[in-house]
Automatic annotation (TrEMBL):
Coiled coil: none
Origin superkingdom: Bacteria
PANTHER family: PTHR34861
Protein name from the UniProt record: Cyclase
Amino acid sequence: MRRDDPVFNYPMDKVNPGQTDIVCDDRVSMSLQFSTQWDAFCHMGCQHDAFGDGKMRATYYNGFRACEEVRGPFDYLNDRAPMDGPYGAHALGIERIAETALQARGVMIDLHAHVGLSRIAVGYDALMRILEADKVVAEPGDILCFRTGFDRALLGQAADPSRAFDQHNCAGLDGGDPLLQRWIADSGVAALVSDNEAVELLPDMAAMTNHGTRIPLHNLCLFKLGMPLGEMFLLSELADWLRANSRSRFLFTAPPLRLPGAAGSPVTGVGTV
């Protein structure tokens, strides 16, 4: 047995003769942002004239600086120059959210019930119509959960790999809609969560001709507002129950792992009804 192998059904009498305990231990290696996960505030920064001197610099929420407070093995902004450690987010790491967990009133917004499993960018006008139709009210401190049906489609394809699956075929927020951006900023909500890959609908990179951010909702929430984004949450079962019971609100609990300096964390969210 190698030292890095998982251990299942290991008889402890091999270590201490006569001991009757049987032990299972395991290990996992995974991307921190390739499953149900929270984005830390250090996940998304921006190159801009941070100090008003005409020079483009990369900073994160509250002005923390790339390659100083947020530091990796290479400085990609300067020809991939190697950098000394320690590496990680010395500010804005996911552990800051883990310290106090993330628990609040959740509000389900069921996009799937109105637009189906379709690639539709939901802007301010469409979202207001959905909220009105479902009698959903968002208040300061709420966590808004956007159900698109992507979670159920993804799990269905995992169960049967022969099924056709298009990872882009789902709705998302229109992050570039200025009215939607203003509503999010003014609403006072605590976080945005979705069952899709990015909360907002990601544009086709090849079709982009404009400069600036490609993911404006990430730029707004993580970089400007300090508002967490949760992605690939399992929402469909809860959304179906809430709709069947003429409800939209529930207790949302989703603490990230306490991983010092990390840019995100897997999470097992719980909705209590």
